[in-house]
Amino acid sequence: MFSSSILAVAALFLIVSFLRQSLSSPLNRLPGPWFAKYTSLVLKWHEFRAQRTRYVHSLHLEYGPAVRIAPNEAAFASATAVKEIYCSGGSGYDKTEFYGLFKVYGRRTMFTTLNKEDHARRKRMLADRYANTNVVREPSLNGISERATRFIRRCCESSDGVVDLFVNLHSYAFDCVTHHLFHPYGADSLQSVKDEEIMREVAFDDSLQNRLLDYYNPTLHKLVGKFLYVFAKPRETPLADDFVLGSSAATDPAPFTLLDRLNGQKLDHLDIAAECLDHMAAGIDTTGDGLCFLMWELSQSASAGHQQRLRDELLANPGAPFDKLPFLDAIVMEGLRCFPPIPMSLPRYVPRGGREIDGFFLPEGTIVSSQAYSVHRIDTTAFPGPDVFRPERWLDQEGDAERRRLFFAFANGGRGCIGKHLALAEMKMLLRAVYSQFKTVPDVGMAHSDMEMSDQLISSRPLGQKCLLRFVPLGSGSSS
Predict the structure, then answer these.
(1) For residue range 64-114, what is the model confidence (pLDDT) as tens digits?
(2) Domain count of the chain?
(3) What is the pLDDT of residues 163-194, one digit of tens each?
(4) Closest CA to 460 of 214, 327, 282
(5) Contact 435, 479 (CB under 8 A)
(6) For the chain, is the Cβ count within 10 Å smaller at the N or the C terminus?
(7) Is 119 exposed, middle or buried (0-12, 13-18, 19+ CB in 10 A)?
(8) Domain for residue 157, yes or no?
(9) Signal sequence: where (predicted)?
(10) Residue 292 assigned to a binding site
């Protein structure tokens, strides 16, 4: 009886303490759903269902650009918030432990380093290989051009003109990024079935739920690991591992490659392999998914005029550099705005002493983030008709500065995407190769539901994991 009373008093004390802490939190000034004061389970439920991005966006639509999404977490979608969180002090706030989900071989890569100092040291090792001056050099661009040609060859080999973009664009991205990482030891998945299997391991990975459970509750993950394997497999990429471990051991890569740069640093082989695999996976998913959604959109009847205008520009300027074609650039910018390849919130810790963001004080240790999907849509003054694919908006000088200030597809600040210039070159050169020679339309076997966004946090692939388009050669009588 006495022990029961003690337990009851202890339970009451814990409940009162919990309520007092919840009701007195400085985050209570932030708008948001009532339950966000007390639990993060709703947010985690949407993460496990691969719907975090759309859920957070729905909260922004209901509550505005600043919203509380969990007891110690807030999301922001304004340009001023993005600048504060990701650019203040050069690299913004430090990352949270969430990035431990993406460690490779147990090592932290540039992407998964948590504090600014460690990140800056690693970035200094790598940055020159991704500088635009290196990307546009002949050895790098020739490699991308050759792979775009191989992609076109695959399209021409299709007997009925139907191409699965999801597979072929990820093969293209895989071959391009490994050329930049390892040449002459890169992959050739557009011509090799063996290499295509490596790409499929990465692009078709379904380990999100398994990794989330391991992160949020390692003990439970250990207890139910074998049972969980049936429904949510861990990340298993033995073919990709073998490829990267082998390629990264090469001692004579081409001078423009990342491996050449890493071989001159004080890193052991596993550190080099981990960094390369991280870049390879990112390069496959972001470029492959981004192009896939963009070409699907360009193939819709509503975008027929956009596709024709792009074709007209390409055919009128056959020798122009890929980065000197205004409408091609507008097409890519609008594609990345509507379909950001990395949809995830990018969580950071508020630094010591706390900070004020968009008029709200947030104590140190609060998790804050922005996601490109919402930053690209919430401000309807900068982006009127935000859900409409309208490339022409990027050609309008009025409001251009604000639109570009809100562009967040590659993140911002010192920790923004280091591969931005390489990704843009791959996208533009592929689009030029395709739309100079073909018109694309959806295959009858595709449904719009197949192209719903499946939010894998660090990638956003089509739900159906396929994208069937019909490639109609120009001059065939169906190109108008």
Answers:
(1) 999 999 999 999 999 999 999 999 988 899 999 999 888 999 999 999 999
(2) 1
(3) 999 999 999 999 999 999 999 999 999 999 99
(4) 282
(5) no
(6) N
(7) buried
(8) yes
(9) 1-24
(10) no
